[in-house]
Structure formats: structure tokens, C-alpha cells
Write a structure and sequence with these properties.
- The complex is a heterodimer of chains A (541) and B (307).
- In chain A, 46% of the residues lie in helices and 11% in strands.
- The longest helix of chain A has 35 residues, at 2-36.
- Chain A has helices spanning 2-36, 75-84, 98-108, 126-132, 140-146, 148-156, 158-164, 193-199, 207-220, 268-282, 295-304, 314-328, 372-379, 385-393, 411-414, 422-429, 442-448, 452-462, 466-469, 478-504, 512-521, 524-539, and strands at residues 53-57, 87-91, 114-117, 174-178, 187-192, 254-257, 260-263, 309-313, 334-336, 357-365, 400-403, 406-409, 439-440.
- Chain A folds into two domains: 53-180 and 358-440, 3-Layer(aba) Sandwich (D-Maltodextrin-Binding Protein, domain 2), CATH 3.40.190.10; 187-352 and 467-473, Periplasmic binding protein-like II (D-Maltodextrin-Binding Protein, domain 2), CATH 3.40.190.
- Chain A is of the alpha/beta class.
- The relative contact order of chain A is 0.15.
- Chain B has 307 residues and is mostly helical.
- Chain B has two domains: 1-63, no CATH class; 64-302, MetI-like fold, CATH 1.10.3720.
- In chain B, helix 6 (96-107) packs across helix 10 (164-192) and helix 7 (111-122) packs antiparallel against helix 10 (164-192).
- Chain B starts with a helix and ends in a 5-residue tail after the last helix.
- The chains are: A alpha/beta (541), B mainly alpha (307).
- Chains A and B meet through helix 1, helix 3 and helix 20 of A and helix 3, helix 15 and helix 16 of B.
- Chain A: InterPro entries: Bact_solute-bd_prot1.
Chain lengths: 541, 307
């Protein structure tokens, strides 16, 4: 606490000092904008001719942790500067502490020119607040003048244009767009197919079949933790998207149904879900350490055969685990299972399905930017034809070759001589396997999902009604946001606590109704009201 | 009037006499002003809606709003209770442990053995907290080392960090394990200064080893113990949030969530700078009160005090 307080004091002091400086920067930024607007008419040709160096704050992709220590060592980021002609100075937050580091940076008031961050998911109050608080700038005019490629894309895709704006119509970032529906589903239940075959069982579809299957895994296959999921940072992390919960018609957050916004954990379906998982846990069908299970623990369980079913990604899940299980048991095969339902033949109400505009990996221009126009022209590169190929596949001749008009990843990526996994090697040369300011290309995934089981997985998981029930990227207004944050902070703590306590059996299932009453007393109705208003504003954009 | 004049002339004379000594004090005073008292004005943000872009002075005043938010929070009582309980248990069990260890080590006659014991006990202090917590998590897993031991002894194995009632014991015990050796060093040093003749005299009078410990060693150690105790009181509400955050999970919130971890979740992750500094200020005030109380009580009872 002492350290924390001291750090706080230092930060506040720095903040005071920097506040003075940054207001000076703002005016110079505006001046630069005015000056260069004279030459706005000419189309951008890359590389740009400039001597200016821009600063850039962003996380290094998790795949590269332990491979490369900084942006400067990653070929993609070196090439990006070469191609656009703009020199960049990178700062990266420590991996896994992005939110904290971002927070401290903001408090210091010492902003870089560009920020790569999730302004909808991780910025309390959302993008409109980030603009009104004076951290980032509204990009509408700048995009009109200096970002012809992005502008063209948004004009051609009005549905996406609606997503990347705020309610007030402000553009605030250079967005990451999943260019194909195929790229929007990448997570779901995963199960050991070889065990199912040994036991003569089908891939489970209903909750009852799952119970039978897990029981057989435990009794006949000796699985110590038949079902295990990562619980960090939140309990049952990957289940939050609707795996298993979805069978009961709810998810763990807000969703829309019949024009109304609902909060899953306060609906009756959630109680049935808790009851099922409570029974499974009591019977030993769920990992005994489920509350503390992190990625490392789940990986270990799957590799050793203690776990036969989980929820994971096609790339970072099946792709990562398949070699691990094979090492222990050459016959082992992991396949995707459909999102479970209660009655056979039903379509699951929820499942993982991201929006075409995922709010992560987006880049904003800050109020401290020395030359916002230059930053915008530089960022627009990702949406040009040349930039599209570069962001998705890297450099021709190095990371991909054109074969009959199809960009094929080279062995440098798919069979890396340094024994890097494809996910890691791709991240060195391109950004298609994660995110960034560009439009993602389906052709990357067709190769990235090297195994047939991975490609099948997307088709299997796709079959849900999530698109209908999920909320779009809505945001409360800056005025509502702190109230909403306070309410949901308390409610989410309560939900996390309730879920795990009931499942582990330290509270009876019947306590559920008390919990719902408590959520109401914490202001759930007001939170729903705020979400409803935000949804209405979104729909009328 | 006359008195004040006298004081002034005395001061001036003293200053003239020792002007270089006074000059040497300047950097020290400046150091404290710049690095310790200067930043204190940052505590102002506890009473404002702080926005870095407006600066500390430019942000809007909100009075006691953040304090009210904290005291009115649904979790306030639970968090306060957990903080006090964890602190008290630590004080009760972890504070005496190094004293006991020092006394025991003092009784050991073999120098080599003494050194080995000391080295082994203070080693954990130098291991990074993240690693320590990793070890604790692994040991207390449903099939971790500790549970295997319990199963071997005929008890049921269970994931201990999933049991709210076990969180405080795990926290306090691991705290002892981490710090016992390191903290005993100061007591061992104090033991060295006890006059050996006292022991000789006691032995002549036929006092046993235990009697010697009770009537000579302990009283000799008392001033050190009291000073350490007072210092500890000044930190009573400062439960290290790093360790809590690394060990807790929603199931143990009800016993593990303390003020600092609550503030971490609410303040740092939700950008509530003002809120966290309001809580930090509240925490510091309580600590200050405890420190002064402990110091006064100790001075009256044992004549040992910090000031």
C-alpha cells in the first residue's frame, strides 16, 4: 500500500507538470494541421517523405512473448516504417498489464502520438469520454482529408461504418475489421475425439449427453478433471461467451431479446446453469482446482490426459493442444463440439461470435500528437491495397509467395527453421493472426488453421443464434459512464462470487434468488436502463 | 516580549557560530521538501474529480464525494473487516515468530549449525513475491504437496485456496515462512548486546537455562520488541495488496478482499484515481492514529517509545 500510495503521489505530481506541457503541444498540433491542409488534395503515395519521428504506444502480441522483447526487433514493425516512410518510436506496456500501464500513462499526462488500445472494452466511459477528456482527437476531418483508403472502405461498408463511429458520429480510431464472417467465430467447446471413439459415444450435443460423456471420461478413461476451463481473469473465462450457459438461454453479460436488454446472471436460466455445474462439480466431473485454474494449469491437464473437454480457440487452443496431447498419446485427436443445447436439434442461443469491428487493436491519435495529419496518413496505409497484403501476409518473397493469385505463406512461417509455432512466426511478419489497424483477410485463416479439425471447428461453432442476441458495441454517454461503471463493478464482483460459490457448493443453489435481489439493490435496473438507452442510440445511428 | 527577543538573539548567535553546519542541512531539508512534502499536495485529488488533462489544480472540486462513495459502498464493511482481521492475525502470529526464533537460535551453542539455520530461514525473504505465490498455489492445489500429505494422514484433499475459511491461515502462515528469518536478525543483534556477566551471575545463583531466558534475555530484548511493535502498528492497515491479488479469487473474496485490493480493482482498473487516493488518505489517517496511540501507550507502560 505504501508503494502504491507513493507511486500515486508521484504520478499525480508528474500529471500536474505534464498537464502544462501538453496544452502547449495541443496548439502546435493544430498549427501543423492547418499548415499541411493546404496540400491535402494530392493523393497519398507511400513511402511518405518526412523526417519526423512519431511515437507509438502499444502492446506486443502475446504470441511473441519470449520470442522478441520489443517492437524494434520484430520484422513487421521495421518494415511498416520502411513502407510508410514514417519513423516510429515504440513504447510497449508489460504483457498482461496493459490496462494498468495505460492507466498510469494517462495519469502521467505524457502521451505519445498514437495509442493502440481497446477504447470500447477497456476505457471506462468509452471513446466519447476519451475524446471529451482530451486524450485522443476526433478524426472526422482528418479522415476526410488524409485517409482516402479507410474512407473508401467505410463508404463501401455502411454496416461497419456504423460500428466504428460513436453515437455522436465521431470517428476515434483506425479500426481492426474482421473482413469475413469466417473470421468472427474462433472459439467453442473442444473434446477428445479418440476417447469418444474408444467409448463408442457420439460428439455430445445436448447437456444430457455431455453429462454421460464426462461421466464416462471420469470412470472409464481415468480423467481426474474431465472438464476444465481457464478461470483467469474471470471464473470460467471462456464460458462467458455462452458455452454451456447458452443452453439455458442466457449468457454472462447483457444481451437483447425481443427489443429488451437483459442481464444473463439475473435471469432464471442462470440458476439452472448453476445447478448443472454444481452437480457436475460435486460428482467430480469438473476440475477440482477450477477456481484457480490458469492457462498453464489447463494446458497441463489437457496434455496429461487429466482433462478431456474444455472451451478454447481454434488457433491458440486446438492448434496449441493437439501437439501436446499427441506427445503423450499418439492416437489423441481434439475436435470441436457444437455449443450445447437442452433438446436435440435446437439451435444454441449463444456462442462466441465477434463483431466485424472488434474494438481491440485499434489505433487512436492523441491530443499530444505533433503532426496528427502525418499520423493519419501513416495509419491509412493498412487499408490500402498494398497495405492490406502487407498487414495480412507480410512481405512477398519473404513470408508469402503469390501462387495463381493466392498469397501462400512460406515455410519460414509454416515450418519455421527456429522451431517457432506458425502462430508465433506469423506474428513476426504480419498482423493477421491477431489484430491491428487493417482489414483482416480470410485467406490467412485458411492457412493458419493448418489442421482439418481447426477448419471444421469454425463451421461447427458458427451454428448459433449469437448474432441475433448479442449486443453490438454500444457505449454509455460520458455522463452515464461513471455511474454505470460503479454499478457494474459491484455487480460483476457479486456475480463472480455467486457463480463460483454455488458451483463449488459453499452456498446452496437456492441462494440464487437472494443474489438476484442483491443485484437489484446494487442498481441493476439502472444499469439495464443505461444499456437500453445506449442500444437505442446505436440503432438510430 | 523579552523572552522572544532573547530567543531571537540566541538563534542569531547560534547561526553565526555554526553557519556551515546550517548550510549542510539545506540539501537535506530540500530533499524532504521536494520528494516528501511536495508530492503531498497531490492528495488534493481525493477531494476533486481528477482529470490529468486538466491537472490537479484545474480539476473540479467534489468535496467528500469519494469518501462517501467508499463508506457507502456495498463492500465497505466487508473490506474493512478483512483488512483489520488479516492485520490482527499477522500481528498476533507473525510478529512474535521471529522473536521466538531469535531466542531459540540464541540457545544453540554450535556456531556452524546456528549459521545454517539462519541462512535457511531468511532465504524465502529474497524470493520474488510472484514466485512465492506460485509455490503457495501449487502446494495447496487439490493434488498439491500439502494435500498429498493430508491424504496420507487420512484427511480429505481439497483445493485450499478455494476455501474462504482457509485463506487467512494460508496468508499468515506463508507470511511467517517468508519473513521469520529476516526479521529475527534484528533481535539476534539485540541479544548480542546483553552483558554476558549477567548470565554468569545468574548461573552462579543456580538459574536454569529457562530462567535465564525469562529473567535476562527477554528483558534485554524488550526495548527492541517495543520499538518494532510501534513501527508495526503504524502499518497495521497496510496489508500488501500484491500478495492478496496473486492469491485470491472470487470464492475467497469474502475473507480475502482487503482495502488495497478493493482499491486496486476499483481505482487502477477503472481509472478512479480520485477514489483510490481518497481511500489511501483514509488508510493513512487511521495508520497515523494507531501509531500515535501505540507510541503513547508504550511510553507510559514501558518507557520505550519512538519519540
Amino acid at each position: 500500500m505504501k508503494k502504491f500510495a507513493a507511486a500515486g503521489l508521484i504520478i499525480t505530481l508528474l500529471g500536474a507538470l505534464m498537464a502544462g506541457c501538453s496544452s502547449g503541444d495541443k496548439s502546435s498540433g493544430n498549427a501543423a494541421e492547418g499548415a499541411s491542409s493546404a496540400g491535402a488534395a494530392e493523393p497519398t503515395t507511400y513511402p511518405l517523405k518526412t523526417d519526423e519521428k512519431l511515437s507509438y504506444w502499444g502492446e506486443i502480441n502475446g504470441n511473441l512473448v519470449g520470442v522478441k522483447a520489443s517492437h524494434d526487433e520484430i520484422p513487421f514493425f521495421q518494415k511498416w516504417q520502411e513502407k510508410t516512410g514514417v519513423k516510429l518510436e515504440f513504447t510497449a506496456p508489460p504483457s498482461g498489464q496493459v490496462k494498468e500501464a495505460f492507466n498510469v500513462m494517462l495519469a502521467s499526462g505524457d502521451l505519445p502520438d498514437m495509442l493502440e488500445y481497446n477504447f470500447i472494452g477497456d476505457f471506462p466511459g468509452g471513446p466519447e469520454k476519451a475524446i471529451s477528456d482530451g486524450y485522443i482527437i476526433k478524426l472526422n476531418d482528418l479522415i476526410d482529408k488524409y485517409a482516402p483508403n479507410l474512407k473508401k472502405y467505410l463508404q463501401e461498408h455502411p454496416d461497419i461504418d456504423k460500428m466504428v463511429k460513436t453515437d455522436n458520429g465521431s470517428y476515434y480510431v483506425f479500426p481492426f475489421i474482421r473482413g469475413d464472417e469466417y473470421l468472427r467465430v474462433f472459439q467453442g467447446p473442444v473434446i477428445r475425439k479418440d476417447w469418444l471413439d474408444d467409448l463408442g459415444l457420439p460428439v455430445p450435443e445436448t447437456i444430457d449427453e455431455w453429462t454421460t460423456t464426462l461421466r464416462a471420461f471420469k470412470e472409464k478413461k481415468g480423467a481426474a478433471a474431465p472438464f476444465s476451463v481457464v478461470s483467469k481473469p474471470r471464473f470460467f473465462n471462456e464460458s462467458g461467451n455462452g458455452a454451456f450457459i447458452g443452453a439455458f438461454g442466457v449468457n454472462r453479460g447483457f444481451y437483447q431479446e425481443g427489443g429488451a436488454v437483459k442481464f444473463g446472471p439475473a435471469e432464471p436460466g442462470f440458476k439452472d446453469y448453476l445447478k448443472l455445474f454444481h452437480d457436475w462439480y460435486a460428482e467430480g466431473l469438473i476440475d477440482k482446482n477450477i477456481a484457480t485454474a490458469d492457462t498453464k494449469a489447463v494446458d497441463g491437464n489437457i496434455a496429461s490426459g487429466a482433462t478431456g473437454a474444455t472451451v478454447g480457440n481454434a488457433g491458440g487452443g486446438i492448434g496449441k493442444w493437439q501437439p501436446l496431447v499427441e506427445a503423450n498419446d499418439p492416437k489423441a485427436v481434439l475436435v470441436a463440439a457444437p455449443y450445447p443445447v437442452l433438446k436435440k436439434g435446437d439451435k444454441p442461443k449463444f456462442g462466441q461470435m465477434n463483431q466485424a469491428y472488434a474494438s481491440e487493436g485499434t489505433v487512436a491519435v492523441t491530443t499530444a500528437a505533433k503532426d496528427p495529419a502525418l499520423a493519419v496518413r501513416m495509419l491509412d496505409y493498412g487499408y490500402s491495397e498494398e497495405g492490406h497484403m502487407f498487414f495480412n501476409f507480410g512481405e512477398e518473397g519473404v513470408s508469402y509467395t503469390m501462387e495463381d493469385g493466392y498469397p501462400k505463406f512460406t515455410d519460414l512461417l509454416m515450418n519455421n527453421p527456429d522451431k517457432l509455432a506458425p502462430a508465433q512466426a506469423i506474428s513476426l511478419y504480419a498482423r493477421s493472426s491477431y489484430n491491428g489497424p487493417f482489414v483482416q483477410d480470410k485467406r490467412y485463416a485458411e492457412q493458419f488453421f493448418a489442421l482439418q479439425t481447426q477448419r471444421d471447428a469454425v463451421e461447427i461453432w458458427k451454428n448459433t443464434d449469437a448474432a441475433k442476441y448479442n449486443l453490438p458495441n454500444i457505449t454509455p454517454t460520458p455522463e452515464e459512464s461513471s455511474e454505470y461503471a460503479t454499478i457494474m463493478n459491484d455487480i460483476n464482483t457479486l456475480v463472480d462470487e455467486m457463480t463460483i460459490k454455488i458451483i463449488l457448493g459453499s452456498e446452496p443453489v437456492d441462494k440464487f434468488d437472494d443474489y438476484v435481489a442483491k443485484m437489484k439493490s446494487l442498481g441493476l435496473d439502472r444499469a439495464i436502463e443505461i444499456q437500453t438507452a445506449a442500444l437505442q442510440r446505436y440503432n438510430s445511428r | 516580549m523579552g523572552k522572544r527577543q532573547k530567543l531571537r538573539s540566541r538563534l542569531i548567535r547560534d547561526f553565526k557560530l555554526n553557519k556551515y553546519l546550517y548550510l549542510m542541512m539545506v540539501p537535506v531539508i530540500a530533499y524532504y521538501l521536494v520528494f516528501f512534502y511536495g508530492p503531498m499536495y497531490g492528495a488534493l485529488i481525493a477531494f476533486k474529480d481528477y482529470s490529468p488533462m486538466k491537472g490537479i489544480l484545474g480539476s473540479d472540486w467534489v468535496g467528500l464525494k469519494h469518501f462517501e462513495d467508499f463508506f457507502g459502498s456495498f463492500y465497505f464493511l466487508r473490506v474493512l473487516k478483512n483488512t483489520i482481521l488479516i492485520s490482527l492475525y499477522t500481528l498476533l502470529f507473525e510478529f512474535p515468530a521471529p522473536i521466538l526464533l531469535a531466542l531459540l537460535i540464541n540457545e544453540v551453542r554450535r556456531k556452524k549449525f546456528k549459521r545454517v539455520v539462519q541462512t535457511i530461514t531468511y532465504m524465502p525473504y529474497f524470493i520474488s513475491l510472484v514466485v512465492i505465490c506460485g509455490i503457495i498455489t501449487d502446494f495447496t492445489n487439490a493434488d498439491g504437496l500439502l494435500n498429498r500429505l493430508f491424504v496420507f494422514l487420512g484427511y480429505d484433499g481439497q483445493a485450499m485456496l478455494q476455501k474462504p475459511e482457509l485463506f487467512r491461515p494460508i496468508y499468515v502462515l506463508s507470511e511467517i515462512w517468508q519473513r521469520i528469518g529476516w526479521e529475527s536478525i534484528i533481535y539476534i543483534a539485540a541479544l548480542m548486546s546483553i552483558d554476558l556477566e549477567q548470565y554468569e551471575a545468574a548461573r552462579m545463583d543456580g538459574a536454569s537455562r529457562l530462567k535465564q531466558m525469562i529473567y535476562i534475555t527477554l528483558p534485554g530484548l524488550l526495548p527492541t520488541i517495543m520499538i518494532m511493535f510501534i513501527l508495526r502498528m503504524g502499518n497495521l492497515l497496510n496489508v500488501g495488496f500484491e500478495k492478496i491479488i496473486l492469491l485470491y479469487n472470487p470464492v475467497t473474496y469474502e475473507t480475502a478482499d482487503v482495502i488495497s485490493s478493493f482499491v486496486y480493482r476499483k481505482g487502477l482498473l477503472e481509472f478512479g484515481w480520485s477514489y483510490s487516493s481518497a481511500v489511501g488518505l483514509f488508510n493513512s489517517v487511521i495508520n497515523l492514529v494507531l501509531l500515535i496511540t501505540a507510541n503513547t501507550l508504550s511510553r507510559r507502560a514501558t518507557q520505550n517509545s519512538l519519540w
